[in-house]
């Protein structure tokens, strides 16, 4: 049984279609920005969790959700959305496991995006 890709191929094709004649330069640039920025946002989430900075945590989760949605990183988007909603509605208690889950799904998305960027 084949496993589902952590990246929605339709989202990737939509990004490719924005600049169809650039040999994927735009897509590679967007992937590069995402792969550079998302680990920084995840580190920010950890810092905010430690310092109990709920508003900043919620914003960082929202940022990850949006950028992941744009690139079709559906699992990353879903976990970031849960983090955003739970932090907004219930505070920061008990989010450690969900944050670890975010790191795991991001690792899978990162590997696939790196593969896409080199093909």
Notes on the protein architecture:
This protein has a single domain (about 10-15, about 25-115), classed as HPT domain (Four Helix Bundle (Hemerythrin (Met), subunit A)), CATH 1.20.120.160. About 80% of the residues lie in helices and about 0% in strands. Helix 2 (about 25-50) packs antiparallel against helix 5 and helix 4 (about 75-90) runs antiparallel to helix 5. It is an all-alpha fold. It is built from five helices and no strands.
Poorly predicted ranges: none
**Strand percent estimate:** under 5%
Using the coordinates shown, work out and report the CATH topology. Four Helix Bundle (Hemerythrin (Met), subunit A)
The biggest sheet, with number of strands, parallel, antiparallel or mixed sense and barrel status, is: none
Overall number of strands = 0
List the secondary-structure elements in sequence, H or E: HHHHH
Count of discrete domains? 1
- Overall outline: elongated
Task: Give the helix/strand class.
Answer: mainly alpha
Q: Assign the CATH architecture.
A: Up-down Bundle
Distance between the termini: 24 Å
Oligomer: single chain
Task: Please give the CATH class.
Answer: Mainly Alpha
CATH superfamily: HPT domain
- The rounded Rg comes to 15 Å
Count of alpha and pi helical runs = 5
Mean pLDDT: 94
Fraction of residues in H or I helices: over 70%
């Amino acid at each position: 049984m084949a496993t589902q890709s952590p990246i929605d191929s339709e989202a990737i094709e939509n990004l490719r279609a924005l600049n169809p004649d650039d040999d994927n330069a735009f897509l590679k640039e967007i992937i590069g920005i995402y792969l550079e920025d998302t680990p920084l946002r995840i580190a920010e989430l950890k810092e905010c969790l430690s310092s109990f900075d709920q508003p900043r945590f919620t914003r960082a989760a929202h940022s990850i959700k949006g950028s992941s949605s744009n690139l079709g990183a559906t699992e990353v988007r879903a976990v970031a959305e849960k983090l955003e909603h739970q932090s907004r509605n219930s505070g920061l208690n008990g989010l450690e496991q969900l944050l670890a889950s975010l790191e795991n799904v991001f690792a899978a998305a990162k590997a696939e995006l790196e593969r896409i960027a080199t093909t």
